[in-house]
Amino acid sequence: QVQLVESGGGLVQAGGSLRLSCAASGRIFSMTRMGWYRQIPGNKRELVATDTNDGTTNYADSVKGRFTISRDNAKNTVDLQMNSLKPEDTAVYYCNAVMAIRSYSDFQNYWGQGTQVTVSS
Question: What is the pLDDT of residue 96?
Fold first, then answer.
């Protein structure tokens, strides 16, 4: 069974830094993209940053210049370095991966359980 396991959330003061990590485990046939999303209660889940197989990264405008995504394709891991954190970054952060577990025909989204990030003012 494939799963994504996150770590690294917590409480930090505004201006501080946190690093989130995510590891994919299980029988993975292929993976095309890993990334991070976040969600505030009552709001839709929104993209934070993604990293595709060709090395293309994509960031939400609100985090550009402050967050950095890094991926290790060999280890199936993805990290999110978050600097200059703001109270509005407070949310549950979810690891995401687009993976196939049997063949190239069954790619789908997989999600981690979420990790809370709280930034105090």
Answer: 98
Mapped onto helix, strand or coil, the DSSP state of residue 17 is coil
CA–CA dist 11, 79 (Å, integer): 18
pLDDT tens track for 57-90: 999 999 999 999 999 999 999 999 999 999 999 9
Which residues, other chains included, contact 120 with Cβ-Cβ below 8 Å and sequence gap of 6+?
Answer: 11, 12, 13, 14, 87
Chain mean position to CA 84: 17
**Cα torsion through 13, 51, 27, 6, rounded to 10:** 0
CA 42, distance to chain mean position in Å, is 20
